[in-house]
Write a structure and sequence with these properties.
The complex is a heterodimer of chains A (about 700) and B (about 550). Chain A is mainly alpha-helical. Chain A has 28 helices and 2 strands. In chain A, strands 1-2 form a two-stranded antiparallel sheet. With about 550 residues, chain B is an all-alpha fold. Chain B is built from 23 helices and 2 strands. The radius of gyration of chain B is 23 Å and the shape is globular. The two termini of chain B are about 45 Å apart. The relative contact order of chain B is 0.09. The chains are: A mainly alpha (about 700), B mainly alpha (about 550). At the A-B interface, strand 1, helix 5, helix 6, helix 7 and helix 27 of A face helix 6, helix 11, helix 13, helix 16 and helix 17 of B.
Chain lengths: ~700, ~550
Amino acid sequence: MLVLIPLLPFAGFVINAFVGRRLSKTVSGGLACLVMVAAFLVAAITGWTVISGGHAIEQTLFTWLPSGDLQIPFALRVDPLATVMILVVTGIGALIHVYSIGYMHEETDGEYARYFSYLNLFASFMLVLVLGANFPVMFIGWEGVGLCSYLLIGFWFRKKPAADAGKKAFVVNRIGDFGFILGMLLLFASFHTLDFQGVALAAAARAPETATFGLMTAATLLLFLGATGKSAQIPLYVWLPDAMEGPTPVSALIHAATMVTAGVYMIARNAVLFSHAPTTLAVVAGIGVATALMAGTIGLVQNDIKRVLAYSTVSQLGYMFLAMGMGAYAAGIFHLYTHAFFKALLFLGSGAVIHALAGEQDLRNMGGLKKALPVTYWTFLTGAIAIAGVPPLSGFFSKDEILFRTFTGTAVNGWNGRPLLWLIGIVTSLLTATYMFRLVFMAFHGERRHDAPAAPVRPEEEEPGAPVPPLPGPVYSDLPAVDRTHGATHASHAHEGAHLHDAPPSMAIPLIVLAIGSIVAGFIGVPHAIWGSNRIETFLDPSFEVSREAAATEPGAPLVDVPPAAEPHEDTGRELTLMAVSTGIAFAGIGIAMYFWLRNRAASDRMARRFAALHRLLLNKYYVDEIYDAAVVQPIRLLSTSGLWKGVDVGIIDGAVNGVGLSVGAGSRGLRRAQTGSVRTYAASLFLGVVLILGWYLWR
Amino acid sequence: MLSVIVFLPLAGALLVLAAGGRGDRHDREPLVRGLSLAVSLVTFAATLYLWWRFDPASADYQFVEQRAWLPAFGIQYLLGVDGISLFLVVLTGFLTPLALLSSWAAVHKSVKVFCFFLLALETALLGVFVAIDLFLFYLFWDAVLIPMYFLIGIWGYERRIYAAVKFILYTMAGSVLMLIAIIGLAWAYSAANGAPSFDLRELHTVTLPWAMQKWFFLAFALAFLIKVPLFPFHTWLPDAHVEAPTAGSVILAGVMLKMGTYGLLRFAFPLFPDAAHVFAPWIALLAVIGIIYGALVAMVQPDLKKLVAYSSVSHLGFVVLGLCAVNVQGVQGAVYQMVNHGVSTGALFMIVGMLSDRRHTRLISEFGGLKAVMPRLVAAFLLITLSSIALPGTNGFVGEFLILIGAFRWDPRLTACAATGVILSAVYMLWMFQRVNYGRVTNEKNRGLPDLNAREWGMMIPSAAVAIFMGVAPALFLRPMEPSIVRTIARIEGRMPATARASQPGLGARGRPASREPRATSDEPRATSHEPRAATSEPRATSCERRAAASDKKI
């Protein structure tokens, strides 16, 4: 039963990959959507069993890796945490599949099938990641989604930026995976199990490493390195903005709603382990909040609609890590779940805009789309309000829960930095509202600017920093602009003039469903302070503790009580105050955006000029790509080429080998003189030899 | 049974020579090719049958054939196969037909002789893996060189003579020393038991003094490490690969390099355990250097074949690291990785061969945008690339993961360095893959290249299928390996205390690092595995340092 959930999309992948090019678009796209909907139904039934039964379901298929005491079964397990995730992945995944039918319709049959096969494969791996009952099975999904991300970012493989971005995503993720693997190794070497429950039990049997830097701290830090790669946190976030080269539905599914949350999920999955390493939690919280702030500031000045959303995703993921670091696992997962709705919505909305404008992504060339694209506008606006944190939309509840937990918990590992973390969180919240409404106002309000000739080449600063400079080759910038972006056929009707299409039904329906979701999704987590029951938290909490059943079946495992995940104070007054503050902040952010980008555009330009240095710094994303290139990529290339290859390999080792060869050759040439071919010389030397040997024997 | 498998290709080779007629007759080419392919396929089927009949629960040599050969010197005709060699035999059987297929389009010069050498090579390789008499092993070991030398020297590319000579000198240098050590070993046996023997099973019972062990081990290890090739003995490999014809590269990378790692595991480590304990950390260090070094150098190669050749240095570094860990996961991963590397690197060389057949160049910069031109070839290429960078779900992951687990229990710091190979392999493979296949078609010559033909499908489908199958169901391979590997480890570990202290005072304390606990834990029943292993990590780190310091003193 459980295995059906990932297996259904996988079947879709197999069919589309092997015979897709011979199928019509209706069949291949329809099949891909069908398997996703079927997977969603199975997931829903499974979820219902978990909710009503109240305990985890497990399925072991076969022994995957047996080697000595290492026995890794291919096992799947669904508990409350996994339930939320599979519903998000299959539900939102299915909607995005449907949306893709409309969005990708210009591709040829073969490409269309290829696209859907990758998308199905992604869903399948993501579900394995979520359902895996031990680290290696999760790692199958973990790297598998990375592969699909690579393939889908580089889907338009003819454009160099897309291929570069795909490779960059894979390589940066591999740096994280390096940490993930080492974390696994350390856990196995110490705990002798890689099963999540087993690890949790083993961790629970130890005292939390409050003052020491022990094994659990090291292992969790390594795992967290993996999470920073997958979930685009400092220092490995650089691949996500570039990943926007992929088709927009891909950005919505992989780079907003699902894959990038894998790191958050992984920490939540190992909540018991992480709770026993407070130092790591402090690091997680610090990195999370720093990423949130940094990405928020960059998002404020970017001009590419998808890049703004990308930085916004990085920023929101930072919130989730903040929650993880605070031990507020349920709050973090709650935000993951609401974020999936509104961020997918925003991406799909931006896709509808890009689709209507024949590939235009530059905000400066948009404007006034409100009338032409009503469905897109109203759904997009809903998403923006939700992410800004305006009650009672979903984003408000989840973000507020995180900020509240940040403010009220106990001290972080002795250092009481919570108010500071909270403050940064609030500032980021202000930034979020501002940049999101800047986007709304620039794209949908004001005058229409998109009839102005589209800039043929996007501004230089947005060219993704290729990790490795290309070999000398032809320059790509002379290609027609339409080829570099979305769709060629749309270019024709965009130039017809003022006539713009709103989203076709296959795209509009997902937008509307997601918009409704963005409004109501938060209601399952209404806090007690305002007469809610926070049901999602009560539902999720068992996943973050050692399960009683598992503990019961392990006799002799002494249970040290797990430190409870920051118990909410029954301090309704303070909670309400904080709520009011964050609501106020959301409106303040919207107000700022309204002033600068709706009422008084000149003021925003003036600001940019007055703080030109800061503006340039933000526009260039703090030059992080450039710094990485200069500090890491180039030195390694130089070392490899002239140091190792030409120097050590060809110079020293081969030099030595050839030197030996040459001297042997020289010696042989000397010896060859002895080989005169004259019988007399041989006879003479033979005689001489006999005499010498005899002489030696006699003389001795 | 084993004799049949070993000598079937040779018999076929002679048949091919006869069928080819006199001189270089082109009209007989299809006959020659068909016949040799048929022979290699029958051999492959025979190896599969061997696997099917193999008893996975036994650690012993199976299908043993024992005949006296030169009784005066104790030399026997002695063949046998166990869990370690079984899959190398199957791998050889698997790759030879593919290698033959890969040469169909490229080789037109004396096809008959080409096929003869390739089949003769298969016999020699199979012999290496099943010989358990050391003298016989040595004969096969050197016999491998001859056909390979001609394959490179006759059917190679421009600098083929230089490459062939370099190849043969490098490897001969090692094997001569090994021959001396083999004879020395037999002599030591006869000193103890009255008559010489080359039977590996008998030789295990000899207790050698430390000084002798040390030198014998070094002689064996040098021969094997050159073959692997371990950094810094690897420079023959890129040259040999670049100049060898595709079939030569496939067999060279796919099977021949494994002779080195197989030799370490079968002979060098168990025969000289004391020396193995002392030198293993140093060999492992070289292996880790090789992993990183090979990857870095591969990254900047302009030539596809050289890139794959250097990537082999990196991959084989993993294998050696796993062997040096001497615990179940490490060694099992190493043997698994030998087979993996054969499958995926063999397939990579086949793909490079296909590109080179079409374009007569192997320079990466000559390609670009191939995905638009040859989507099927590029799909196969992608799959093999993924297997080479060890994506979970492919064979590469199973091998690397087991090696890393085994090595981590032995020496976490070295393993952490080795694990950077995970990042680097993605860098060089994907960068190459992008430059060859993505982007626009910029070189007019690449337009209109034909996609895979039936013969090439016949090479790609088996390779890709095996790569996936070994990633999904490794248990089928790991289970038959385990008993033999456990016994070999016991041999390397177990004989230590008494003999070592007797022969070399003070060695026991140093030679047996305290951190070698894994074997004890590996036999633990699964039930206890959840038990908290308190305080395992800190002592391990320190014992590891102690060992490193101890070895420092010795060397």
